[in-house]
């Protein structure tokens, strides 16, 4: 008989504590996870096909928090458990010290609906398609909901532990959940933060069209509010910044006017309200000294409707007014606000507008792209777009959902047509070879981003494994770093080929089994997508260069690269044939690329209609005016509607 949730809680807590302790122990031992800077984004969206200005001169060794230089906000793509480890460790590349005890406010809105459809609707010219989650996202959702509430609580506990480590002594955390899970998360929060540090359960009331006749209609969410340390009584709380307007009845009570023409009401010092006469036991409460009623633990705010200006068509997007209340109440200008389930980026967007610093993370590629465009649209201060440098989580080994798969690297080798090496030949189970040839094959992990370091490792193995003398090496990967095309170009003379493992392979293995897939030869490994730009046209005009940059083509060699249903793969193929550039969701330019850090100084994206009134296409040509440089490298980066990134480098 299965254990009840109450019986499971001690084990959930014990395992979560142990996982968090191991993470913190690794940090202190020097084993750290790093952040990889994909872009330094300097928001400047296209409005007329012309960029006026010069590329900012920002050094690679960024001057950040903790030094004499400028703080930069961060959008991090990846598992928040890894992102928080990186923030606790600090980011040496960008000069960021450890943020342990440095975060002033955390708000999280983790997904709490196990039946949610995590597909993303993508509108293309003439058709709509539904993208299924990436392999990394599939792991995350499986970890979260495989066993329902038990899995959810196992997921959240160690993350709450790391959030506590990040919070400052005066910091606070708000956890946004609903009736499914509130009681259980409250128990975990009491354990992690201490029951005495619980401040409020906030109720957000709203209206929705859906109504039920089988229960009281559920029209609210719960938000648990804890401080880091109530004992010192210094946690940040600014109630007068979020007062609610007085009612008409209360306003009428300010019926007196003093000698300076200021309105006031009488209050009794002994606690009585509105005494009829002024005497030694009363005092004057002036209207202009009180902006309204102090906040209650419930508030009525509408959810975003279809016509809302801030609406991004992101399924779990929260209204900005909700985050305004929380951020104003529990932080001050200049404070650091973090959201580790970033979603549509509402927390960071509001924090920026209110003068706070921010960090936001999400494991979803669609979410990361939505946030990047939102921040550019808002013209936020320059920010870093980063990912987890080494995405080696290796949760696959412990994921019960895929126990039937066995040794995954060996399975993928077999499906590709390669043979594994024997343990006597090499202990590395990720390598194999094509029988009768001198072709080496390397299989990357589903929980790793295939990066330039992966390609280098494969090339080194080609030269050294079993005496070397291999003619070619093939790298099979699941998820790819933003600069993978650049890495492939770097090693193009080393006879290395990079192919994509089908994103639905794990599901196929679960449904059909390994032998069936071998027999019907239905697994196809595809080449990566790539971007084609026309040759640069450069004209020197005094001390400036005018550079015409134009995209020519976008090549997505096979819809099999994309996690789509078969009918949507057919639709995609039709779009590829008639309008391939329409797959470009976002593109940006660094006109002075240094080969290390991509500085995005010009951007366009499909929803930007200020330049062409076309929400389904970007503009594909622009003219940059920048300071003259006879040895310029121009780097062009594009992200397609599925989140795949490509870049090309053109030299002047």
Give an overview in words:
43% of the residues are buried. The chain is of the alpha/beta class. Residues 54-68 and 390-406 have low confidence and may be disordered. The radius of gyration is 28 Å and the shape is globular. The chain is built from 15 helices and 33 strands. It has an 11-stranded mixed sheet, with helices on both faces. Strands 17-18-19-21-23-24 form a 6-stranded mixed sheet, sandwiched between helices. Strands 2, 25, 26, 27 and 31 form a 5-stranded mixed sheet that branches.
Summarize this structure briefly.
With 652 residues, the chain is an alpha/beta fold.
Describe the sheet with the most strands: 11 strands, mixed
Overall mean pLDDT stands at: 84
> Helix segment count?
15
Span between termini: 71 Å
* Quaternary structure type: single chain
Widest sheet: strand ordering: 13-8-9-7-4-14-15-3-16-1-29
Q: Looking at the structure, what is the overall shape?
A: globular
The portion of residues assigned to helices is 25-40%
Question: What's the helix and strand layout?
Answer:
Blueprint: H1 5-28, E1 35-41, E2 50-52, E3 73-77, H2 80-89, E4 103-108, E5 120-124, E6 127-131, H3 135-145, H4 149-166, E7 167-177, H5 182-193, E8 198-205, E9 220-227, H6 248-252, E10 256-257, E11 263-268, E12 282-286, E13 298-300, H7 320-330, E14 336-339, H8 346-353, E15 357-362, H9 365-378, E16 383-388, H10 408-416, E17 419-420, E18 431-433, E19 439-443, E20 449-450, H11 452-464, E21 472-477, E22 479-480, H12 484-490, E23 496-500, H13 505-512, H14 514-520, E24 526-527, E25 530-533, E26 537-541, E27 544-555, H15 566-578, E28 584-590, E29 599-600, E30 602-605, E31 621-627, E32 633-640, E33 645-651
Parallel strand pairs: 1-29, 2-31, 3-15, 3-16, 4-7, 4-14, 8-13, 14-15, 19-21, 20-22, 21-23
Antiparallel strand pairs: 1-16, 5-6, 7-9, 8-9, 10-11, 11-12, 17-18, 18-19, 23-24, 25-27, 26-27, 27-31, 28-30, 28-32, 32-33
Helix pairs in contact: 1-4, 2-4, 3-4, 4-5, 7-8
């Amino acid at each position: 008989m299965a254990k009840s949730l109450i019986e499971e809680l001690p084990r959930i807590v014990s395992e979560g504590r142990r996982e968090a302790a191991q993470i913190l122990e690794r940090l202190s031992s020097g084993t750290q996870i790093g952040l990889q800077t994909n872009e330094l984004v300097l928001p400047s969206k296209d409005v007329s096909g012309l960029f006026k200005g010069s590329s900012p001169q920002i050094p690679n060794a960024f001057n950040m928090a903790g030094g004499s230089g400028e703080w930069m906000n961060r959008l991090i793509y990846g598992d928040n458990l890894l992102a928080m480890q990186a923030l606790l460790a600090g980011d040496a590349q960008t000069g960021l010290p450890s943020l342990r005890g440095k975060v002033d406010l955390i708000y999280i809105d983790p997904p709490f609906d196990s039946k949610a459809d995590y597909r993303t609707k993508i509108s293309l010219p003439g058709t709509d398609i539904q993208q299924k989650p990436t392999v990394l996202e599939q792991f995350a959702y499986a970890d979260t909901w495989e066993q329902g509430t038990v899995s959810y609580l196992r997921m959240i506990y160690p993350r709450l532990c790391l959030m506590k480590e990040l919070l400052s002594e005066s910091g606070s955390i708000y956890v946004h959940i609903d009736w499914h899970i509130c009681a259980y998360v409250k128990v975990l929060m009491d354990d992690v933060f201490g029951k005495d540090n619980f401040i409020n359960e906030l109720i957000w009331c709203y209206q929705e069209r859906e109504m039920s006749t089988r229960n009281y209609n559920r029209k609210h969410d719960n938000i648990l509010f804890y401080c880091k340390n109530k004992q010192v009584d210094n946690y940040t709380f600014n109630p007068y910044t979020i007062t609610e307007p007085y009612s008409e009845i209360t306003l009428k009570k300010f019926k007196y006017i003093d000698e300076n023409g200021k309105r006031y009401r009488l209050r009794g010092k002994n606690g009585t309200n509105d005494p009829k006469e002024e005497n030694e036991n009363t005092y004057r409460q002036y209207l202009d000294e009180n902006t309204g009623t102090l906040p209650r633990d419930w508030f009525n705010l509408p959810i975003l409707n279809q016509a809302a200006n801030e609406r991004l068509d992101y399924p779990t997007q929260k209204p900005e007014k909700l985050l305004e209340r929380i951020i104003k109440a529990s932080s001050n200008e200049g404070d650091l606000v973090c959201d580790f389930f970033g979603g549509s980026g509402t927390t960071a967007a509001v924090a920026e507008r209110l003068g706070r610093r921010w960090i936001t993370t999400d494991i979803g590629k669609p979410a990361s792209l939505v946030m990047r465009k939102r921040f550019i649209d808002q013209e936020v201060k320059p920010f870093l777009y980063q990912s987890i440098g080494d995405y080696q989580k290796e949760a696959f080994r412990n994921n019960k959902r895929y126990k039937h798969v066995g040794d995954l690297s060996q399975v993928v080798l077999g499906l590709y047509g390669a043979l594994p090496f024997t343990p006597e030949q090499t202990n590395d189970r990720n390598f194999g070879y094509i029988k009768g040839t001198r072709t080496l094959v390397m299989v990357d992990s589903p929980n790793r981003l295939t990066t330039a370091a992966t390609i280098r490792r494969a090339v080194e193995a080609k030269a050294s494994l079993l005496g070397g003398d291999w003619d070619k090496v093939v790298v099979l990967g699941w998820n790819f770093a933003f600069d993978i095309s650049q890495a492939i170009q770097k090693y193009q003379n080393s006879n290395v080929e990079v192919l994509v493992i089908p994103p639905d392979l794990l599901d196929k293995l679960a449904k059909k089994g390994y032998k069936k897939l071998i027999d019907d030869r239905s697994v196809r490994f595809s080449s990566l997508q790539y971007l084609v730009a026309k040759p640069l046209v450069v004209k020197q005009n005094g001390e400036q260069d005018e550079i015409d940059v134009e995209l020519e083509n976008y090549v997505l060699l096979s819809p099999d690269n994309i996690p789509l249903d078969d009918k949507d793969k057919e639709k995609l193929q039709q779009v590829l044939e008639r309008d391939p550039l329409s797959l470009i969701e976002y593109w940006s330019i660094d006109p002075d690329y240094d080969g290390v850090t991509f500085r995005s100084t010009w951007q366009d994206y499909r929803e930007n209609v200020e330049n062409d009134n076309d929400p389904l296409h970007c503009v594909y040509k622009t003219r940059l005016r920048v300071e003259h440089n006879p040895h310029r490298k121009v780097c062009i980066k594009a992200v397609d509607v599925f989140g795949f990134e490509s870049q090309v480098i053109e030299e002047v």
